Please model this.
Amino acid sequence: MAQERKKRRFALKFWQKTYLLTLALFLLALYGGIAAIASAAQQRAFEAQCGMLLERQHAAAQSLAADAAAVYARRPEALPRLAESYAAQAGGAGMFLRVAHGGELWADTLPAPDTALPEIPPEGQRVHAVLTAGQRHMLYVSAFLPAPPEDVSVTCAFDMEIFFAEWEQTRSVFYTAAAAVSAVLAVALYVVLRGLSRPMERLAAVAGRLADGDYTARSPLRGTDEVGQLAHALNEMAERVEQNVSELQETAYRKQQLVDNVAHELRTPLTAVGGYAQYLQRAELSDEEKYEATQYIVDETERLSAMSRRLLQMAALRGETAAREPVEVPALLGRVVRTVAPKADSRGVLLCMEQTPGYIVYGEAPLLESLLVNLTDNAVKACEAGDSVMLSARAGEACVILRVQDTGCGMDEQTLARLGDPFFRPDKARSRKQGGAGLGLALCRQIAESHGAHIEYASERGVGTIAEVSFPIDEGSLAGVR
Model:
C-alpha cells in the first residue's frame, strides 16, 4: 500500500503530461519551422551571392579570354605576363586568380583550399564550389578559356566569410527570438493548463472523499462547460449515494430493531412456557392448577402463533403491489362493523357506521378488510364503556378517505409519531394483557403502501384518535356518488 502511494506521489499528473507533450510539440514545430525557414532563406541568399560572384567571374574570364587571344596572335610569349597582370588587378578587386596553360602555371594568387578543387569541366562549362581555406569560406570557380590559345584554365576564388558570418548572426537572432517565444509560451501554457486542471483536481478530491465514505462532499458549481457539467453530475451522484446510504442505514436499523424486538417479544412467553412446563413436571398439582398452567401455556402459544402469522403477512406484503379490483366502500365498512361488533359490545363500546356514498376503491378486498379491522379493533381497545367508534368515508382532494374515529383515551405526540413501528405498543401493559404484540399497525401501514395509499393519525389525550386512510382516485372511484 505504501509503495502504491509512493508511485502515485511521483507519477505525472494528467495536466503535467499535457503540459510537457504540448510544449514539446510546440517547440518541435517552432524550431523545425525556424530551421526550415532559415535554411530556405540561407539557400536563397547563398544562391544570390553566388550568382553575383559568378557574374564577376564570367566578366573577368571573358575579358581575359579576349586579351589572351589578341596577345596570342601578336606575342604569344607575353601571355604569362598578361596572366600575372590580371591576377594583380583581381587581387585589388577582392578576387583571387590562378591561370595555367596545360601543366605550366602562368599566375597564382589563389589561397590553397583545405580539400582538393573539383575537376575542371570541358570548354564551355564551369564548376564552382564553396571550400574552406584555413578558417575562411571561399567560393572557387573553375573553367577553360575559349581558344585560342587552347588548354588555358582559369580558377577564381572569392572570400565568402563575411556572408557566412552575417548569416550566422541572423540565425542566432532567429533562435534567440524562438527561445524567448518558447519561454513565454511555456509560462503561459503552464498558467492556462494549471488553471484548467484545478477544477478537475477539486472533482478528484470530492470523488476521493466520497470513496472514503464522506457522502456530504460536494463540488462547487462554476460555469456551464464540460467541467461544470461533470461537477453537477458528480453532485447529483453524491446526493443519490447519500440518500441511498441513508435509506440502507435506516433499513438496517429497522431490521436490527425488528430482530431485537422479536427476540424481546419471544423471550417473555418462552420463559413463561418453559417455567410452567417445569412447574408441571416437578410439582404435584391439583387438576385445577394443572388446567390453569396448561391454559397459560396455550394462551402464550396462541400469542406466539398470532405474532408469527403477522410477521409472515408483513414479509409477504413487503415490496408487493396489491391487485387492482374494485371494492365498494359501503359494503367494506359494513363487513368491518360486523366483524368487530361482538368485541365492541362486550366492552360496552358503541360501534357504528356513518351513512356512506357509493365510493369505490381499488385493491384486494381481504387485505383492505384486514386493514380496517385492525384500525377499528385498536380503536375499540382504546375506549372504555360508554365511548364510541365511528367508521365513515369522504371524498378528499384527488383521493377517497376512509376514517376510523374513536372517543377513547387518546395519545400524546411522542406516541403518535411511533405508530406503525413494529412491536411498538402505546400502552404496553394493556396491549400485552389483551394479547397484542404491536404488529397490527405495522401491518396496516404495509397494506396501505401495497395499495398506493397512506395512513395519517391525529389524536389528543382525553379526546380520542382519528385514523384516516387516503386512497388515490381512479376512474370510477366516485361512480356511485351523485
About this structure: The longest strand covers residues 136-144. The chain has a mean pLDDT of 81. The radius of gyration is 56 Å.
